[in-house]
Design a protein that fits this description.
Blueprint (H helix, E strand, L loop, with lengths): L2 H13 L10 H9 L3 H18 L1 H8 L8 H4 L24 H37 L1 H16 L2 H12 L4 H31 L3 H8 L4 H9 L4 H24 L11 H8 L8 H28 L11
Helix pairs in contact: 2-14, 3-6, 3-14, 4-6, 6-7, 6-9, 6-12, 6-14, 7-9, 8-9, 9-12, 10-11, 12-13, 12-14, 13-14
Amino acid sequence: MSFSDLEAEAVHADAGPALTVRGRSPFQLAWNRFRRDRLALASLVILALMVVFAALAPLWESLTGHAYDATFPRTALDPSGQPVGPSAEFWLGADQLGRDVFVRASYGARISLIVGVAAAVVASLAGVVVGTLSGFVGGWLDTLLARLMDLTLALPYLLVAIMLATTFQISSVPASLLMTILVIAFFSFAAFGRIIRGQVLAMKEKEFVEAARSLGAGSGRIMVVDVLPNLVAQVTVLTSLLIPTSIVFEATLSFLGVGVRLPMPSWGSMLAEGSDVFQTAWWLLAVPAVLLLLTTLSFNLLGDGIRDALDPRADRVVRTK
């Protein structure tokens, strides 16, 4: 063995083992950015607790022995007829009819989460379909769908909801729940669709779309295979931000008496019922208001965290305090 070979072997031995670089998927990179956002993680924990609180509504009903629509005038009302406050029997107090506020708030959480998530998903699906077709196809279809979205945004949603409730005279709880979801989705998809339309208009001029066209791909295949996968991040963020808006929408409708029908409780209807006696029974407003605030704020902070995690090019300030 020559001297040069010995020298090369010594240099190689001193270098030590070669470092290996492990690749990470986009999901892993997004998760690493998301878990550094303490506010988003705290919001996720609060929402998980809210889901558990709503899912265990029958358990709370069994433990307390109080159904959400059952009245207990002897124990829930004082001698003057005023509702009693939080106690060992009524954990969050009672309302003016002698019903358990804790159990009613738990069932109200079910309504808010079901309506918020369902309406946001339906609005997202409709917005993606309408926005993608409008932006990618163009021409008369773009004009028609764009004017449809403008018309939807111009309609007064409260008046339309009241008109639907009074016209069809919906009295059953499932039917009123379905109507509330559809009304919220109808008035939410237009804003969603306009954003998706703008994204598609910019995306269809990209090089990868032109490359797909040059290879003979049709418009349908390009929309499904090339365009829609690139909208996943935007759709995820917009849907997470649309859920709290839908929850507030439902609470507004229930507050006005055109949302989910009684006796099924809703945070909006609980706010309406407690607005008359809040000076003597503060918990009737405080309980649904705090739950509504925590839920909507948590969804908004979670949506901000998801947006920052999925957009590595944005100028982010990681919230670590």
